[in-house]
Amino acid sequence: MTKEIWRFIDSGNCSPSFNMALDEALLDWHSEGKIPPTIRFYGWDPATLSVGYFQKVEKEINMDAVRENKLGFVRRPTGGRGVLHDQELTYSVIVSEEHPEMPKTVTEAYRVISEGILKGFHELGLEAYFAVPRTEDERSSLKNPRSAVCFDAPSWYELVVEGRKVAGSAQTRQKGVILQHGSILLDLDEDLLFSLFKYPSERVKERMQKAFKSKAVAINEISSRKVDLHMAKEAFKKGFEEGLNIELEPYTLTEDELSYVNQIAKERYESDEWNYKR
What we know:
This protein has a single domain (4-275), classed as BirA Bifunctional Protein, domain 2, CATH 3.30.930. The longest helix is centred in the middle third of the chain and has 18 residues, at 106-123. It is an alpha/beta fold. The strands form 2 sheets. The chain has an 8-stranded mixed β-sheet with strand order 7-8-9-10-6-2-1-11, with helices on both faces. A 3-stranded mixed β-sheet has the order 4-3-5, covered by helices on one side. Helix content is 39%, strand content 26%. It is built from 11 helices and 11 strands. One of its GO terms (biological process) is protein lipoylation. The record marks 165 as: Lowers pKa of active site Cys. Pfam families: LplA-B_cat (PF21948). One of its GO terms (molecular function) is ligase activity.
């Protein structure tokens, strides 16, 4: 049986505004039937703090620390909490809600798409698996996350290795299209991460940072060999092909497509109104 061909874009390191604009543009183009389902890999220049669509920047984010560390800053079109995009592989998946392999519920679609990431971890020799919140406490903490830090909270079908979260993802559905994007951590600077959020007190910050170590981990902390970005890309590209039973065909954006993306970047993702609006 021939496999469905999806488009594959490796856009390399881009600005925060371009990264979010390209994800949005891919969603637009797919909704208009101009492109097939697409998987994209990307990185960030400079390293960037992204916040979820509903987060309150003034209340939760230490913007002085973001500026002092010369980080980029952008609001995502997806929900979830704050993510430091630094030493990681970022991915996005764009596929129609009507795709025959896509379940109707957000949670189940998330599991199907994340199968590709799961297989990518297996390619790297890591025993990753899907975590399902078991206790009432865990389930209620999904509804009322106490932390502004993405990797600090469990979710349905979160990917974990040795009980710790190794990838964080968020999803939105617009114009009949699912956009899921997320971070696969290669390495993590915890002190930098925790300096970017506001806390009621220094003691609370210390307690949360200490607890964080037991909840999240980067690939190179648990891998028996050093995994670089090239290895990660190879593994997760294979993982998506296997996990979603598809073939990925590389694609480079045209000049017209690039100028459309740059227009969205400028109008939305570089505007203070969008980034600080809540």
